[in-house]
Specification:
Strands 2-3-1-4 form a 4-stranded antiparallel sheet. A hairpin with an 8-residue loop joins strand 2 and strand 3. By secondary structure, it is an alpha+beta fold. Helix 2 runs antiparallel to helix 5.
Length: 143
């Protein structure tokens, strides 16, 4: 939850997108994803994507991954790591993450192109149905 509003972080803001561009990252960028799933996926915003029977947030996210991988790879990116999360060893004791993902993109520009691709966006409803909160941290290798 956000400290000031109590709202979850589900999508980037205009400010965070602008800040990413201002960083001037050259070369590959790896996105660290921390994900917390809903017990039951909420397809109220995208009922056309909803399965016939209710599914868990983790199951909805698996549908999102299945939809996303071809678009990600076509853009030159790939998933480097998918793992089960949990509680922090160092960090807030009341905070837990269900899944950790590392996604590599050739550049910030290819990430932006991937993230705005209409075909990819067609499956975004699975992600929004799946997660109750998330974090996305762009990172670059030290040179």
């Amino acid at each position: 939850m956000t400290p000031d509003s109590g709202s979850p972080y589900l999508e980037p803001t205009q400010e965070s997108g602008r800040d990413l561009m201002i960083r001037g990252i050259e070369g590959e960028v790896v996105m660290l994803n921390l994900l917390r799933f809903r017990d039951v996926a909420d397809y109220s915003a995208t009922p056309d994507l909803a399965p016939d029977t209710p599914i868990s947030g983790a199951e909805a996210y698996a549908l999102y991954i299945e939809h996303t991988i071809p678009h990600l790879r076509a853009s030159g990116g790939d998933v480097e790591f998918i793992g089960e999360g949990g509680a922090f060893l160092i960090g807030p004791s009341d905070e837990r993450w269900d899944m950790v993902l590392l996604v590599r993109h050739r550049s910030v520009q290819t990430f932006i192109s991937f993230a705005s691709n209409e075909a990819y966006l067609g499956g975004m409803g699975h992600r929004l149905a799946a997660i109750s909160d998330s974090r996305l941290l762009p990172s670059v290798a030290r040179r």
